[in-house]
Amino acid sequence: MSGSVPNGLDRLISVDSHYQCTVDALKERTSAKFHDAIDHANRLVEAPKRAAVHLRGLPPVGLGSYLHEAARNPGYFDPVARLAAMDDDGVDVEILFSDLSSFRIFYKMLDGWKETARAFNDFSSDFAAADPDRLLVAYQLPLREIDHAVAELDRLVSDHGARTIHLPTSPNECGLPEYFDPRYDPLWARLQEMKIPVCIHLGVSDATWEIAARDPTPQMGVFTSQQPLRLAEQLGMLLLSGLFERFPDLQFVLVEPGLAWVPWYLNTLDSMTTHGYEFPALKDKPSAYFHRNISLTFMDERRGVEMRHEIGVDRIMWSTDFPHPACTWPNSRKVVADLMAGVPDDEAHKMVYGNAKRIFNV
């Protein structure tokens, strides 16, 4: 553990950390008759990225040369080593997201998608089994058939102790309606009843790979800096659609959007309600639903912390992003100390531990 946290902040929860699940791991847990379909679906998922690599004239091994040292840590794929890495970093609990977007694979499968989704979730549960009180997986829920989604949710909660689920950033790219569509209502009702939050993690869309192809920087700085703002689209869909009028206690967590742009965006939405725009499904300002139903994660963003009262201290949750390039491992304690310098004890505690404990029922 490096450094110490001032102001009595001796507990840390990272609400955005990652682990490795591979396509081969999915195939090991699925019937052989579906393996070709899994491989084909994965090629379809990877096609926009490969096209960007080709247009940039880069070798197929990757889009940039930079890897954080955490990416070489065995904790990325070994849960016992992961617990040791967390201890080294002073992190008590992690909300875990797979770097494999399995839902993008199984939504491209005509057959075997239920078995593939279950294989992913069971693999993830096995990873977390090393210490399920510290390793909390965001399970990826298939939404093609809502009755099946509800049944899988019930299984994940009863068999694996699920605390949250992870849904696609862009449902339209998975052939799904937007989340305000009434077809999802049985799922939202069940999640609301169970007090389980929905996580929507920043994700690269097929369309934004075109930006990568035009980006002049070696590690795609233009492309990468755009990704957090993609969550503004989903935030607008959630806030303006009336979803939270139907499900006032449903909680969504936007993962890795950053903070500083959010006050401007909320002000923009609120201003629209007084400048001729009609939102017939709303009974309150968009920002009111945000402060009741939406939470955000951040990493090393001092400016966002300074704007915490505009965002709402109760809606902000810290993360390490292990093992990605922006990762704060193994210096998270020092990073948190610097971030929270001058912040009142109770507010700092909420942002690095208390809010996550409440939202995820830790």
UniProtKB/TrEMBL annotation:
On whether Lyase is a keyword of this UniProt record, the answer is yes
Coiled-coil intervals: none
Alphabetical UniProt keywords: Lyase
Gene Ontology cellular component?
A: cytoplasm
- List residues of the Amidohydrolase-related domain: 71-361
Q: Does the keyword Lyase apply?
A: yes
The alphabetized list of GO BP terms reads: secondary metabolic process
Entry's SUPFAM superfamilies? Metallo-dependent hydrolases (SSF51556)
The protein's matches in InterPro entries, at most eight in alphabetical order, are given as: ACMSD (IPR032465), Amidohydro-rel (IPR006680), Metal_Hydrolase (IPR032466)
Q: State the superkingdom.
A: Bacteria
* Pfam families for this protein: Amidohydro_2
Q: Which GO terms describe its molecular function?
A: carboxy-lyase activity; hydrolase activity
Gene3D superfamilies, sorted: Metal-dependent hydrolases
PANTHER family from the xrefs? 2-AMINO-3-CARBOXYLMUCONATE-6-SEMIALDEHYDE DECARBOXYLASE, ISO-OROTATE DECARBOXYLASE (EUROFUNG)
Q: What is this protein called?
A: Amidohydrolase
Q: Which organism is it from?
A: Frankia nepalensis
